[in-house]
């Protein structure tokens, strides 16, 4: 089974999807197309994306209730690392609309029937491990500057962070490491999940394609990352409610960005046998 499609596809081949070089204008066009997809049937997509703001709130409440205030903000920002997984149903809707179909919200769950489901799961596990690693690094940065003592309250924690030299240093290093995690997450996932949804190429090949697309288009992909970060911040105000709109737009736009970054199957080079 070729490692259950983690390394290769169902036939034991190692596909190498061809990537394109695109402009920053094409990134904006992908966002425009994502907005069009959302506007067609917004009620379906808001329903699908209620899970994201709800999970965001659960994480925030859990972090406060479990004396995890030091990682409350890393949790909120790190949750965006899991966005590509949450948007799988949206990719499916955009894919079917691209084929001239008129999908209902139920068809967004057709992802579960994908022959690449195990590869999707494997790639999702990579993002989840990255998320856990980020939380642990953020906790270590906090303890490096303030020790293992848990803040007495949210207001005390904010005062320590915003008004002390240790707090400023913590924010600097936290932002620096956070940027590094964001770059890694973006490069390994920008086209991974849409590619797996369309073609059972194997998780390793999908991640490698995403990295190659990023290397070939550093400025457009970086712009996409800035757009995602900015919209997620805007959508998080207040209490994550705006994410019910932001997430579907970004999800659909990700599909269209994938279309621009990766050549269609008919134009792919011949796959080679995986070792």
Structure description:
- This protein has one domain.
- It is 67% helix and 1% strand.
- It has helices spanning 24-40, 42-49, 51-65, 72-78, 83-86, 88-98, 117-146, 154-163, 165-189, 192-198, 203-216, 218-235, 243-261, and strands at 13-14, 272-273.
- Strands 1-2 form a two-stranded antiparallel ribbon.
- Helix 7 (117-146) runs antiparallel to helix 9 and helix 10 (192-198) crosses helix 11 (203-216).
- It is globular and about 60 Å long.
- The model is unreliable at 269-274 (pLDDT under 50).
List keywords for this structure.
275 residues; mainly alpha; single chain; 67% helix; two-stranded antiparallel ribbon; globular; 13 helices
State the low-pLDDT regions, or none. 269-274
Question: What's the shape?
Answer: globular
| Helix count, DSSP H or I runs of 4 or more residues | 13
How many domains would you count in the coordinates?
1
Strand composition percent: under 5%
Question: Care to give the gist of this entry?
Answer:
The protein is an all-alpha fold.
